[in-house]
Amino acid sequence: MPSIDVCFSPELLPLFKLQGKIAVAVDVLRATSSMVTALSHGVVHIAPVSELTECMAYKDQGYMVAAERDGVKAEGFDLGNSPFHYQEEGVRGRHLAITTTNGTQAIRLSRPADEVLIGAFLNVGAVADYLRKAGKDVVVVCAGWKGLFNLEDTLFAGALAERLEGDFELNHDATLAAYHLYQTAKSDLLGFLSKSSHVQRLERLHILPDIEFCLREDVYQVVPILQGDFLVPAQ
Amino acid sequence: MPSIDVCFSPELLPLFKLQGKIAVAVDVLRATSSMVTALSHGVVHIAPVSELTECMAYKDQGYMVAAERDGVKAEGFDLGNSPFHYQEEGVRGRHLAITTTNGTQAIRLSRPADEVLIGAFLNVGAVADYLRKAGKDVVVVCAGWKGLFNLEDTLFAGALAERLEGDFELNHDATLAAYHLYQTAKSDLLGFLSKSSHVQRLERLHILPDIEFCLREDVYQVVPILQGDFLVPAQ
């Protein structure tokens, strides 16, 4: 039976063997939620990049450019990191380049895996279906917050583990932790997270509607997958 | 109000500021449980060292030398990593040098803190009392397993957070995770841990009685503290 493991911080990723496995990169608040939303609303592909200058360079090629640092839109960019930015009719048929504090680094570091998917609560069921069909070992790569453990990405990992229960081994310690935390939190994810100093910091940025949206499960069916340098909807 | 934070792996410790804080190093299975047991049974002091050769060198100075690698006693040493080794009458008045796979590294890396304590379920109440009196910010440094997250050290952190609730802020994400996992697990810690592949690996070493003993709370009142190169009972 394949297994699902969870890496709580990109800093720990060198300890995981990704070859032969599928990585699911997650940054629930809000990078991967925004990416899932963008591809669901007709964005053709997404270039996840690490640096602001690298991101801005895509503008000359006709891309929409999006950048977030420390929770706010970086100066001079078209878009920030709110999923609502990617629900507008104007995004359909466009190409997007994006850089965020944590999420795009998690994607970059996941590249040694056989396949890199993008997960969020918004598409957790679709990701689970994809993984079940693939039947390979899985590592959920949590973006965390500047290298530190965070709860919301962990809860996503727990939700995904619950969806895969019975078809995947859940016996890695990190997976068991994520699974049990999700059991405790799932009836009220927002209430559970509201005690977190990290989420409180995000709330001070007045993005509570963003947070509520990002915690909704199975809103979209798209599974973003990395092909070369670009995220596209998996077929 | 002071806060309690949790570092799930020594690999993440560079992200934590330890200056001005108290570090509580924990390796429940079994290094710190054995250290607490040893000092409670009359060992004068303990030298926690990183390398086997460094540890063996203490033998010429009359120390008992203990070494564990990958769960078993290293060849040529007097003692391994079982707490039962340290309950014998013969340990009273002796000095001990010890090296283990994970625990002694966690202690070494905690040194930048103002004070380094040793925690285990066996002395969790005494550690909580010490911390409450000190009133400084706390970081629990989990030894983990070769850099990876583990459940048993996390559950200790959760137990300690529960004891400090009301007197310390528990709003760091890692602390909330540990606290909630402990709430789920505390009525049957061994049952909870028995699903873990890591604990299953230890069970295959036939140390189930060790594991059961290490999960008992408040057996001892000693609080080991690092003074120079040695762990001694805090006064």
TrEMBL record, chains A, B:
Its EC number is 3.1.3.71. Keywords: Hydrolase, Magnesium. It catalyses: (2R)-O-phospho-3-sulfolactate + H2O = (2R)-3-sulfolactate + phosphate. One of its GO terms (molecular function) is magnesium ion binding. The keyword Endoplasmic reticulum does not apply. Its cofactor is Mg(2+). Signal peptide: none annotated. It comes from the Bacteria. HAMAP family: ComB. Belongs to the ComB family. This is Probable 2-phosphosulfolactate phosphatase. The gene is comB.
